[in-house]
């Protein structure tokens, strides 16, 4: 009777703890989904900077310093690129507003729009305010002032929210870079048995995310740099009428467009070629030779060479290219801007589950095969794996766990070399 009471007490404790665990998982899932875009972007930054972290950590004694250096190596060029793009865009807008074409357009619209009256009224208002600043108070109503204040506070709130999310991204990526090996060691000692299907699943997911995220970043950077150099060289022989506008910026946009599989840089160079062709036809048809040269060079040098030489080494080999393209398309459509990072993540998780776990669920004999052999079904005569609950396997499993936990390389589950700790 006492034994039954003891078992009942243990069962109640386990049931209570399982209920608490479920409640905690629900709360964590709610928080994670509330900030899913920020967290997924932080995961992307982690995978994009992890190869740099691995190189730096081998030369720096402190993992904290190595993580900071890796993030700076990734964030600073991204900020410089963003600032350059904004500066070029503002310059182009200013040049467009002051161009002769805009003046001619305004002259055409003058009979239909009171542009001169509006300009004259604005000039008169400025003169009155400059002559007597006190008149500004009479011209401003309470509603106008409140609207200005509300718009200003809204802008400040937006900038503050964007800064907070950027800070969260940096914090998530920083601590993942610094402490990822601890997470691996905890998971291996708690949930993942060495050589199990679960361990293989997370290993291949990690490899695919690294190739999809970091590989595409490398491909985009190299493609953008190559396109910028090629377009600037083309402008050296281009007729002035059909010169590539802002060749460096167009090259950077080509690199960004290369993140989209299959379609890739065609999103940029094809519209540019069409615009140049239209200008050549209208201005000087004899310059069409340069448009043809631009198209051929874009196809061969900028598009074909990176895809054939670089992408096979840096992009994921397990996940189908068409599936990645659909993930990049449907991700933003379903979830918004962060879908470009969440889409590939969901694809990799689902694809590797079907490739590694689903065959094992159908036939546990698949545990005898490496992940790379999962495309070939086991023979009917292949012996099944002995029951993991047997005494021999249990002892071997415990010894394997003890050896893994005691060793200095708890990060080996993900195929990475250990680095020095703080």
Automatic annotation (TrEMBL):
GO terms for cellular component: membrane. Residues 391-404, 413-422 have a biased composition (Basic and acidic residues). The chain crosses the membrane at residues 20-47, 68-91, 151-177, 217-237, 249-282, 288-306. InterPro entries: AI-2E-like. It is found in: Membrane. Residues 374-389 have a biased composition (Low complexity). Residues 374-422 are annotated as: Disordered. It comes from the Archaea. Keywords: Membrane, Transmembrane, Transmembrane helix. The keyword Transmembrane helix applies. The keyword Transmembrane applies. Pfam families: AI-2E_transport. It is a multi-pass membrane protein. Belongs to the autoinducer-2 exporter (AI-2E) (TC 2.A.86) family. This is AI-2E family transporter.
């Amino acid at each position: 009777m006492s034994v039954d009471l003891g078992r009942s007490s243990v069962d109640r404790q386990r049931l209570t703890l399982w209920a608490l665990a479920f409640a905690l998982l629900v709360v964590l899932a709610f928080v994670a989904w509330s900030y899913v875009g920020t967290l997924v972007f932080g995961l992307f930054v982690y995978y994009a900077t992890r190869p740099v972290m691995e190189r730096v950590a081998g030369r720096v004694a402190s993992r904290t310093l190595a993580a900071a250096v890796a993030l700076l190596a990734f964030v600073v060029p991204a900020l410089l690129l963003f600032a350059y793009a904004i500066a070029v865009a503002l310059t182009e807008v200013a040049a467009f507003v002051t161009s002769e074409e805009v003046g001619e357009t305004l002259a055409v619209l003058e009979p239909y729009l009171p542009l001169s009256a509006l300009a004259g009224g604005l000039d008169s208002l400025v003169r009155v305010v400059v002559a007597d600043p006190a008149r500004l108070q009479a011209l401003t109503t309470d509603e106008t002032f409140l609207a200005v204040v509300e718009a200003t506070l809204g802008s400040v709130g937006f900038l503050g929210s964007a800064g907070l999310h950027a800070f969260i991204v940096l914090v998530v990526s920083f601590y993942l870079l610094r402490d990822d090996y601890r997470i691996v060691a905890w998971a291996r000692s708690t949930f993942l048995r060495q050589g199990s299907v679960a361990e293989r699943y997370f290993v291949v997911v990690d490899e695919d995310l690294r190739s999809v995220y970091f590989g595409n970043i490398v491909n985009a950077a190299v493609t953008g740099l190559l396109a910028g150099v090629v377009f600037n060289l083309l402008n050296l022989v281009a007729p002035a009428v059909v010169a590539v506008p802002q060749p460096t910026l167009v090259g950077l946009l080509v690199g960004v467009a290369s993140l989209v599989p299959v379609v890739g840089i065609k999103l940029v160079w094809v519209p540019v070629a069409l615009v140049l062709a239209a200008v050549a036809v209208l201005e000087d048809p004899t310059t069409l030779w340069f448009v043809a040269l631009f198209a051929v060079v874009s196809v061969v040098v900028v598009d074909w060479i990176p895809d054939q030489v670089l992408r096979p080494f840096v992009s994921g080999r397990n996940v189908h290219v068409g599936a990645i393209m659909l993930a990049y398309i449907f991700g933003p459509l379903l979830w918004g801007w962060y879908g470009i990072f969440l889409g590939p993540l969901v694809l990799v998780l689902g694809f590797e589950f079907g490739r590694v776990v689903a065959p094992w669920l159908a036939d546990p004999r698949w545990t005898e095969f490496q992940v790379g052999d999962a495309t070939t079904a086991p023979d009917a005569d292949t012996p099944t794996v002995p029951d993991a609950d047997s005494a021999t396997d249990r002892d071997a499993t415990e010894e394997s766990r003890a050896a893994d936990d005691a060793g200095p390389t708890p990060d080996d589950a993900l195929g990475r070399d250990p680095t020095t700790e703080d």
